[in-house]
Amino acid sequence: MTFATPRQVFSLFEADVRTRNRNAAERRFRLYGVIAITISMLALALLLFTVLDNGLGAFRQTFIEIKVPLDPARLDPSGTRDVEAMKKVTTIGYGKVIQAGLVATLAEAGIATDDSSVRDVFNLISKEAPAQLRNRVLANPDLIGTTIDFRAFASGRVDGYFKGRVSMASAELDSNISPAQLAIADEMKAKGLMGLHFNWDFILGPDASELRPEAAGLGVAIIGSAYMMLIVLVLSLPLGVAASIYLEEFAPTNRWTDLIEVNIANLAAVPSIVFGILGLAIFINFAGLPQSAPIVGGLVLTLMTLPTIIISTRASLKSVPPSIRDAALGVGASKMQTIFHHVLPLAMPGILTGTIIGLAQALGETAPLLLIGMVAFVRDFPASPPEGFFDPASALPVQVYNFTQRADPAFVERASGAIIVLLVFLLVMNAVAIILRRRFERRW
Amino acid sequence: MTELPLPVKAAKVNARNVQVYYGQNHAIKDVNIDIPSESVTAFIGPSGCGKSTFLRCLNRMNDTIVGCRVEGRIEIDGEDIYDRRVDPVQLRAKVGMVFQKPNPFPKSIYDNVAYGPKIHGLTRTKAELDEVVEQSLHKAALWNEVKDRLAAPGTGLSGGQQQRLCIARAIATSPEVLLMDEPCSALDPIATAQVEELISELRNQYTVIIVTHSMQQAARVSQRTAMFHMGIVVEEGPTDKMFTNPDDRRTQDYITGRFG
């Protein structure tokens, strides 16, 4: 028998060449790791900084605060306070009321306006304002005849001026705003008639047209995304877990199950836009479900999420030690009892993590939703479930995409703001995943 | 304790021409053995000789292994356990098993023991179940150590306590046969002694079959011993005779430590 020749070591205090080389290799490897982590942390920091820097402004909006006397002659010519009759007055009529209120408020504050500049001042207010006032009055006709405090959005350009996006110099070249208007805006701000406030409408309100970025909100998109997540969760969790349990624990290993297994692995890698085409062909063209509806989006995202859930569930079922199965079978538990009493609870943290990661993926998915019409401009809130599942809605990532498509630079800020909201939702979901895992793990 | 001649007891388990295949591998060849009731039978033999495989045939735990095939006839109380009418789940309630590595459920001590009676519907009331749990833990000589912390997780016990908990769990379903697959291999000598003492006690009520690598253990606890080698039973008989005057050369070599 041959033995390895012993190493010629004279002192343990002195590392030989081989050892030094090995240690150097280890140090190099650690350095590579540190470099890799530093690069990714920097990239993450840069991403977060850009998004926050661009997007935080979207949560604060410039508002104009004026007193508006609601003139009964204009708003309720019939004098009956009948809502149906009052609906005949269009936003143009309300615009006139606001203009009158604005002039009065400015006069009271001592800001000089002449006939030529009244139009300019009125244009400082968002085109959304008359509609807002109209809705408020129609909801409460008793307001007519009183003078109300009305907080209206300032136009996108004015908002941009206070956020540093628009300057006097750029206003010279801008057909939508003039330096004179900005000067009045400055004056109004100094008098406290105009200022930046937190804008709940950005989170809760519906989208607005390209001409009024200041009024655009995420409400419909958030509800659409929430509905879709609900559908995905309700469909994909039971389907995915049941499929995994069957495949992992009950199915015989033969050519068919091999085929299914390969296909599930492949499905997880299929580009998401393909699922969109599939949804368009099957759910909309064949099954006749409505376009832009959360139900179709939810179904498509369910198909996308299922492979993720199945793969992670199978992995966590597989990782349950066989000794637990033996123990349960050994005391005479049936296969199903073994799985449901012992294996599944142990696999639960992994299943939940996989499910929430799948949901988070689905929440951020855009491409398939574009194909099933969720890219449409939707201003009406969907009804409450289950009817609401069939109403048109938007989705958060699609809303981001929509905002970036619009010309007005004010939408850059809103797109980043929408990304922040999306990231907050993702963070919350991941936090829930971590908490659930901790809770389930602590029991053992 | 084994000096006195044992009263002849009726065979509880009869195996005839048992063959086990793992795919192409013929793991157990032509095993014929009769195991008397209310006694301890030890299976000894070198690693990979098939003693654990044969043990797992007795409660059909091999059914869960893909590609495993059992042929021949194994009877418990005269009933062929591989008959198509036999539900392995019911069989395992009658033939309990303790594994090599202590494997308590990650639940409370109480739930560990109560699980079997619960799923088999052996008790009607909570009080009855409490009684069964206490009795089982008493029989497993664990009651005094855990009576104050029945709600604590079973996995938090020491190795020896865990194994005794597993024994309590196995006997809680009142099996008639108790299979033990190297129950002491993961335990220190003190815990081993406790488990061995327990096995000797259990003999009065159960038919115990134990697989062991320890000759001393086989000699201490068993009344009959079967020597496995390369998938066959080379010799089987009263433990006294096996360890003092074996017929087969291989048995002698093995118990004197010349191979294995």
UniProtKB/TrEMBL annotation, chain A:
One of its GO terms (cellular component) is plasma membrane. It is a multi-pass membrane protein. GO terms for molecular function: phosphate transmembrane transporter activity. The chain crosses the membrane at residues 29-52, 226-247, 267-289, 295-317, 343-364, 415-436. SUPFAM superfamilies: MetI-like. Belongs to the binding-protein-dependent transport system permease family. CysTW subfamily. PANTHER family: PHOSPHATE TRANSPORT SYSTEM PERMEASE PROTEIN PSTA-RELATED. InterPro entries: DUF3333, MetI-like, MetI-like_sf, Phosphate_PstA. Residues 222-433 form the ABC transmembrane type-1 domain. This is Phosphate transport system permease protein PstA. It is found in: Cell inner membrane; Cell membrane. Keywords: Cell membrane, Membrane, Transmembrane, Transmembrane helix, Transport. One of its GO terms (biological process) is phosphate ion transmembrane transport. Its main location: membrane.
UniProtKB/TrEMBL annotation, chain B:
PROSITE patterns: ABC_TRANSPORTER_1 (PS00211), ABC_TRANSPORTER_2 (PS50893). GO terms for biological process: phosphate ion transmembrane transport. Keywords: ATP-binding, Nucleotide-binding, Phosphate transport, Transport. It holds the Pfam family ABC_tran. One of its GO terms (molecular function) is ATP hydrolysis activity. It comes from the Bacteria. Gene3D superfamilies: P-loop containing nucleotide triphosphate hydrolases (3.40.50.300). One of its GO terms (cellular component) is membrane. Residues 13-255 form the ABC transporter domain. Coiled coil: none annotated. Belongs to the ABC transporter superfamily. PANTHER family: ABC TRANSPORTER I FAMILY MEMBER 17. NCBIfam families: 3a0107s01c2 (TIGR00972). This is Phosphate ABC transporter ATP-binding protein (PhoT family). It comes from Hoeflea marina.
